[in-house]
Amino acid sequence: MKHASIYARDLLFLFIGFPVWGLLLFYSIIRTLYRDKKPVFYTQTRIGKDGKPFEIYKIRTMLVDSNLADDLRITSNGHFLRDWSLDELPQIWNVLKGEMSLIGPRPLIWAYKNELPEHISEHRHSIKPGLTGWAQVNGRNEIGWEEKLALDAWYVDNRSFWLDINILFKTLPIWALRKGIYTSDGKMMPDLQLKSTKTPTQNVDAIILK
User: Fold this and answer.
1) I want to staple 204 with a disulfide (CB 3.0 to 4.6 A). Which of 65, 133, 154, 185 is the partner?
2) DSSP classification of residue 58
């Protein structure tokens, strides 16, 4: 699929879904203003298409200017937003700006820029990162990095309109049931640790292809 057609498709889906995501975003903003005050939003540098940095938008879920560890800085409202992935909704602005797509590998934090082997990084970042993706509907944070990277690589090689539709429809029940939000040790994102530096596509069929 060409980039222009993907962007047009994303705009169409966002327009159709506006009554739902618009209401959820509005609710999340008002809830955060009431419970945690300002600032409501924050940005974080992530790895975008072709390995270029961009600022991702999120709703703030942590205390500001605190010396506590990250896990202890999360507010009660922040836990609620994270449990329902509502803190990710502002990334729709990244989609509108053309920095992200609705479907694609989730954008990695910039600190991981030089952590992936070059051939894996170039392949993974040859397309825009997404709000949801093939790895998110096949385990999300319950699976390890090798599995995530294998699923992302498979998606890059097999991307199609109907695959994206499949991912969108699979995302809805996973979101509603709050599946795979946390790792086995309670983290929202496992630390990047690779056991192998081979191209992570060979064993994807054995990992999961639903």
Assistant:
1) 154
2) E
How far CA 147 is from CA of 80, 84, 113, in Å, comes to 28, 23, 19
Beta-carbon contacts of 84 under 8 Å, excluding residues fewer than 6 positions away, are 175, 178
pTM of the full structure: 0.89
Kindly report, residue by residue over 78-102, the tens digit of the pLDDT. Answer: 999 999 999 999 999 999 999 999 9
Name the residue ranges covered by the structural domains of the chain: 3-207
Burial class (CB in 10 A: 0-12, 13-18, 19+), 47: buried
**Length of the chain counted residue by residue:** 210
Residue 152 contacts by C-beta under 8 Å, 6 or more apart in sequence? 105, 124, 133, 134, 135, 200
Residues 108, 113, 116, 117: is their CA dihedral positive or negative? positive
Cβ contacts of 111-120, under 8 Å, gap ≥ 24: 112/47, 112/192, 113/47, 113/51, 115/192, 116/149, 116/192, 116/194, 117/194, 117/197, 119/199, 120/149, 120/153, 120/197, 120/199, 120/200
User: For residue 56, which phi and psi values (nearest 5 degrees)?
Assistant: -90, 145
Q: What are the tens digits of pLDDT across the range 110-142?
A: 999 999 999 999 999 999 999 999 999 999 988
Whether the pLDDT of residue 59 is over 80: the answer is yes
Q: How far, in Å, CA of 186 to CA of 141, rounded?
A: 10
The amino acid that residue 27 corresponds to is: Y
Residues 47, 112: contact at Cβ < 8 Å?
A: yes
167-186 pLDDT per residue, tens? 999 999 999 998 888 776 76
Instruction: Enter the tokens of residue 90.
Output: 């502002």
